[in-house]
Design a protein that fits this description.
Length: 167
C-alpha cells in the first residue's frame, strides 16, 4: 500500500425524505468510523475508493465526489489504529506502517439506501445506516470529515445537479 495516504468515504443514503450515512463499528472495540481504506501501490486513488465502496455497498455505479483533503496533526493518534489491529489479532510487526501519520482524501457518495445491504470490512463487526442527526461518537477526525462532507453536499445541491442522483 501507499504509505501515508488513505481515503475516507461519507456515503449518504437518501430515501423518502430521510438522509442517512453509513458508519462502521470496528470489531471488539467501541470505535465507530466512516468507511475508508488504503491505496495499493499499483492502484489509482479513485479506483481504490470505488473498490472500497463496492465492497461495502455492492454498488459500482454511484455518484462519487472528492471534496477535501484532511491532514491536520491532531488526526495522528497511532494508539487508535493499534487498538483496532490488536482487537482483530493483526500482528504489529507486519503492519507497522498502519501506525504512521496519514493524510486522508475525503469523498462523498450519494445512493438510495434501500438499494444497499451494507457489508462490514475485515476489521469491522458492523456497517449500518445512521440518521445524520443521531450519529455515534466517531473516532479521530471522522466527525469533522462528516461535517465537511455534509456542508459540501448542501452547497453542491445549489451549484450542481447532484440531487438528480438521489431522485
Amino acid at each position: 500500500f501507499l504509505r501515508h495516504i488513505a481515503y475516507d468515504s461519507v456515503i449518504f443514503g437518501f430515501s423518502e425524505g430521510q438522509l442517512k450515512v453509513l458508519i462502521m463499528k470496528y470489531r471488539n472495540t467501541d470505535l465507530y468510523a466512516l468507511p475508508g481504506g488504503f491505496v495499493e501501490m499499483d492502484e489509482n486513488l479513485n479506483d481504490a475508493v470505488i473498490k472500497g465502496l463496492k465492497e461495502r455497498t455492492g454498488l459500482h455505479k454511484i455518484y462519487l465526489e472528492q471534496f477535501y483533503t484532511f491532514g491536520d496533526l491532531k488526526r495522528y493518534k497511532p494508539e487508535v489504529m493499534k487498538t483496532i489491529l490488536e482487537a482483530n489479532g493483526v500482528k504489529k510487526v507486519k503492519n507497522e506502517w498502519m501506525l504512521d501519520r496519514f493524510i486522508s482524501v475525503g469523498y462523498y457518495a450519494l445512493i438510495n439506501y434501500h438499494d444497499v445491504d451494507p457489508k462490514p470490512d475485515s476489521l469491522s463487526e458492523s456497517c449500518d445506516w445512521y440518521d445524520i442527526n443521531k450519529l455515534p461518537k466517531l473516532m479521530l477526525d471522522h466527525k469533522t470529515i462528516f461535517t465537511k462532507a455534509l456542508q459540501t453536499l448542501r452547497e453542491s445541491l445549489w451549484k450542481k445537479p447532484v440531487g438528480k442522483n438521489l431522485l
